[in-house]
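Appendix C reproduces, verbatim, an entry submitted by the partner laboratory led by Prof. M.T., so that reviewers can inspect both the input and the predicted structure.
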Amino acid sequence: MIARTAPMGWNSWNTFGPNINEELIRQMADVMVEKGYRDAGYEYLVIDDCWSLKQRDENGLLVADPEKFPHGMKAVADYVHSKGLKFGIHIMRGIPRQAVFQNTPVKGTDYTARQVAHPSSVCCWNTDMYGVDAARPGAQAYYDSIIELYASWGVDFIKVDDICVKYVQPGDESVISYGGDEIELLRNAIDKSGREIVLSLSPGPAMIEQADHLRKNANMWRITNDLWDSWENIMEMFTRCNTWSPYVSEGCYPDCDMIPIGHLSLRGCEHGLGERQTRLSKEEQRTLFSLWCIFRSPLMLGCELTDADEWTMSLLTNDAVLGLTKHSHGAHQILRTGDLIVWQSEGEQGGQYVAMFNIVGWPDDFSVSFSKLGLEGTYEVTDLWSGEKEGTQDQALTADIPAHGVKLVRLDRVE
């Protein structure tokens, strides 16, 4: 099975937007190894949008921009693989409009682009593509041809956009639809390719009523629209994670989006926000990362890796906290009040993980009883962020938690 644990890696968009090139990607691959990100588990290096030309090849397939990637995408993938990493790319769903205009052939068939295109299915924020009509002969063959190409390059991860949900107006979640038919075409094509490729679907919020279909056909799917560095966004994710927690399983991961921590938007200006260090306080960053890990979201970094300070690196590479994504299961919210949210998951050999989140803007003392946690007996308490053992408890967990902060612990039964 692919993606036995939640995929971890780095994505180019939050830092570089469309301004990417081969030299930059090689540099990021080097840094992921040299600074220990790879060894911490971040194995996927994903090139987001704008790596290709507007022009297509004779079969209507994407061509890497030779100015940005002069040696081609296979050479980039080979370099990434040489570093012990895996290589990913971003694509939009559908077939290029230019291919439809030129009526290029669908590779290996007698069909043409116009015969498989769905001209009324166009992304509202990127109009380069038409959707593919899954009911038409040749539709599967078209998706087979693009996945065959990417597999030949050595692609290990494909982020497909405008497919998890399709917007009528950018950002308007009141009118969205599901791209399930094209998701199935992609799933079939990947299975035929013979290569293990993680299928990641964007944007969100994914539709909970499609959970079973998503689990059958994808490895990860966005449960939020674009997430950025604000406390309001984190608060929204508590609700979304609670909704999706029953659907996290081996190979299937609701995705909380890229992690907006560190140095962001060096060459982009997403949502009008220019270059900056994350606007989240240190406590808010620790809260975000704790929630992502106990929930077992995919962990895709979005920051500039070369200049991350020691504190940021220690946050992102904490082995004990990252271990939640590999050695826990059954995470769920057990309590939410006006000032406290509590999550719990099961560890190995009977251990328990508990995260207590202070969601108000001032420090406070909190307590959660063992009866609320469903526990009896005596447990040794270990703080996952500090690594410190804090003695034993047999009645309740108590903590003084900073504003917007978290207390994240492991409980081990004392016989």
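The chain has a mean pLDDT of 96. Additional entries are available on request from the coordinating office.
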